[in-house]
Write a structure and sequence with these properties.
Number of strands: 8
CATH class: Mainly Beta
Order of helices and strands: EEEEEEEE
CATH topology: Lipocalin
Distance between the termini: 17 Å
Shape: globular
CATH architecture: Beta Barrel
Number of helices: 0
Number of domains: 1
Strand content: over 45%
Largest sheet: 8 strands, antiparallel, barrel
Helix content: under 10%
Strand order of the largest sheet: 1-2-3-4-5-6-7-8
Structural class: mainly beta
Radius of gyration: 13 Å
Length: 101
């Protein structure tokens, strides 16, 4: 897989993070900005990575805060669709951009 070991920026409006797939089962992410405000949050999670077609992946994981995340990451078109459920059951969805950094 050509995404392993590379850094990618995801941007949802004024929220920005850097993703790095350490392997096919491990993802590190660093949240850099939330709603235009600088932050520095880092986490490494275990992921299930499913290739739907070349350069299109379904990626799922659970964060230490209890969020469960599912993303469709399209590296060919530079778009990411993110859905997550918070620990209290609220479902959130966003569409953003995806680019190599």
């Amino acid at each position: 897989m050509d995404i392993i070991g590379k850094n990618f920026q995801v941007q949802f409006g004024e929220t920005r993070a850097i993703l790095t797939f350490q392997s096919e089962t491990t993802l590190s992410f660093s949240i850099k900005e939330i709603e235009g405000k600088a932050v520095e949050t880092f986490e490494t999670v275990q992921v299930k990575l499913t290739e739907l077609r070349p350069r299109l992946y379904l990626v799922t994981w659970k964060e230490k805060n209890g969020n469960t995340v599912s993303q469709v990451q399209d590296y060919e078109l530079g778009v990411v669709y993110s859905n997550w459920t918070t620990p209290d059951g609220e479902l959130k969805s966003l569409k953003g951009t995806l680019s190599k950094v």
